[in-house]
UniProtKB/TrEMBL annotation:
<dbReference type="GO" id="GO:0005634">
    <property type="term" value="C:nucleus"/>
</dbReference>
<keyword id="KW-0175">Coiled coil</keyword>
<dbReference type="GO" id="GO:0003700">
    <property type="term" value="F:DNA-binding transcription factor activity"/>
</dbReference>
<dbReference type="InterPro" id="IPR002487">
    <property type="entry name" value="TF_Kbox"/>
</dbReference>
<dbReference type="Pfam" id="PF01486">
    <property type="entry name" value="K-box"/>
</dbReference>
<feature type="coiled-coil region">
    <location>
        <begin position="10"/>
        <end position="59"/>
    </location>
</feature>
<protein>
    <submittedName>
        <fullName>Transcription factor, K-box</fullName>
    </submittedName>
</protein>
<feature type="domain" description="K-box">
    <location>
        <begin position="1"/>
        <end position="67"/>
    </location>
</feature>
Length: 111
C-alpha cells in the first residue's frame, strides 16, 4: 500500500487520507472493544478465584478450630477418666491417648 501514489492528485490524496483515518478509527474502536471485553472476563475470573480461595481458607480455619477443640476435649476426657484429679496416670497395659494441644495451652500446662 502506498506504492502507486504518484499518479494521484491532491484531492485524491486527501480523500484517501480521510478514508484511511476513518478505517484506522474503526479498527482502533474494535480493538479497544475486544480488549475491554477481555479485561472484563479476566476480572470476573479473578473475582471467582478470590472467592474460592477465601472459601477454602474459611474451611481450613474451621477445620483447625474443630481439630483444636477435638484434641482439647480428648485431653479433658482422658484426664477425668483417669480419676478426676486432672492427672493421667500411665498404665503399661493401657494405650495412651494421642493428645495434641495448641502451643498456647502448653504454656499454661507447663507453668
Amino acid at each position: 500500500m502506498g506504492e502507486d501514489l504518484d499518479s494521484l492528485s491532491l484531492k485524491e490524496l486527501q480523500n484517501l487520507e480521510q478514508k484511511l483515518d476513518a478505517s484506522l478509527k474503526h479498527i482502533r474502536l474494535r480493538r479497544n472493544q475486544l480488549m475491554f471485553e477481555s479485561i472484563s472476563a479476566l476480572e470476573k475470573k479473578v473475582k471467582e478465584i478470590e472467592k474460592e480461595v477465601a472459601r477454602q481458607a474459611h474451611i481450613e480455619q474451621q477445620d483447625r478450630h474443630n481439630m483444636s477443640s477435638y484434641h482439647f476435649d480428648t485431653y479433658i476426657s482422658a484426664a477425668y477418666q483417669a480419676g478426676g484429679n486432672g492427672l493421667v496416670e500411665e498404665s503399661p497395659r493401657q494405650a495412651q491417648p494421642s493428645i495434641v494441644l495448641p502451643p498456647w495451652m502448653l504454656q499454661h500446662i507447663n507453668h
